[in-house]
Amino acid sequence: MHRLYQEMLHLTPEQIERVYKSAHHIREWYDQHPEIETWEDYIRYMGKSDEGQEA
């Protein structure tokens, strides 16, 4: 945590807000999809959800 804090000291308030929003979005998505544990799971999941969107 200390390393993260040290790295964030160099960011502007706007950059910190973008990091926060991104992390918050990822956390919410992960909480809604606990079955996704690996990158491969994510790719499979996204492939399935894309199939329904093709025209």
Written account of the structure:
This protein is mostly helical. The chain has three helices and no strands. It starts with a helix and ends with a helix. The mean pLDDT is 88.
How would you describe this structure in keywords?
55 residues; elongated
Helical coverage, percent range? over 70%
**Poorly predicted runs of 5 or more residues:** none
In terms of quaternary structure, the protein is single chain
Mean pLDDT: 88
* Order of SSEs: HHH
Q: What structural class results from the helix and strand content?
A: mainly alpha
For the CA atoms, what is the radius of gyration?
A: 16 Å
Number of strands: 0
Share of β-strand residues: under 5%
The main pleated sheet reads as: none
Number of helices: 3
What is the terminal-to-terminal distance? 45 Å
Shape: elongated
Brief summary:
The protein has helices spanning 2-8, 13-32, 39-51. By secondary structure, the protein is an all-alpha fold.
List the helices and strands and how they pair.
Layout: H1 2-8, H2 13-32, H3 39-51
